[in-house]
Amino acid sequence: MWTTVLVGSVGCYLLKLAGLSVPAAWVQRPLVTRVVEFVPAALLAALVAVQAATSGRDLVLDGRLVGLAVAALALALRAPFIVVILLAGAAGALVHVLGG
Amino acid sequence: MSSPARSATLRDSLGLGLAVGLYGVAFGAAAVGAGLSTWQAVALSALMFTGASQFALVGVLGAGGGAFAAVGSALLLGSRNTLYGVRLAPMLAPRGWLRRAGTAQLVIDESTAMAVAASDRELGRLAFWVTGGSVYICWTAMTLVGALGAGGLGETAQAALDAVVPAAFLALLWPRLRRTATEAGVQRRVALGGAVIALALTPFVPAGLQVVLAVVAVLLAGRPRAVAA
What we know:
The complex is a heterodimer. By secondary structure, chain A is mainly alpha-helical. Helices cover 79% and strands 4% of the residues of chain A. In chain A, α4 (63-76) runs antiparallel to α5. Chain B contains eleven helices and no strands. The longest helix of chain B is centred in the middle third of the chain and has 30 residues, at 121-150.
């Protein structure tokens, strides 16, 4: 586990350092900026889906999806991050208590 | 540079830094819930120090994913910091390798946004250092709080934590999908594609790998509109 933590950390740090160090022309190409601009949307959405609706190799519907729906509603109403998180957690706990 | 502008920048940067730093609690709790030790959680905040990548790494590990998928998704999400650095380099112009090494660690979403939004170079540098520094200190400290708090959780609290992780990713994603974001329509298309690909691959690939593979959804963005040369 420590290896994963350290390798990931060093890698992410080098990505930051590279930005300050390489000539801008290397990175500021239309295709590169295009890809980097949209990578977070693809990955974060994938993480939302996997964390909310899967367990191992199975698709699972449980309190996490209820929490996610509550979070989406809170975000649409422009609630701050910490409120979104608390509401989602409360919804997940409630479903668990109700035997979901 | 007027003093009111300076104190306004200082106030905004510090306020944002402290507010964002509070989310460190959610990360610390999620990391421990995913099976990391308290110190591994804190190490990620202090060393990796880029929230989305940290959540991705522990999210993939928590889903039973391997080291390759965990590190891969963290690096893919961290790649935007490279572009931020390119954008900030002329403003910050860190002299000497030591200063550059220190500056690099603070290149994140929030410090970049505040620096770029400043009205001149001096205020931009101030915004970068104060925002980056306050997020760093608060985020790392709150990670420790969250990690320690998650240690003795019961089943109900664990269910709450399980619901918190996808909600945290959604909250990170949301600003990119808002109608006011640049090319919001394209961002939404890519996001939907990423989610569908990840779910479709889940039964067939080792845990976590579907997240890395979902990156092909960027193809849905199409080519850049104005292709130079």
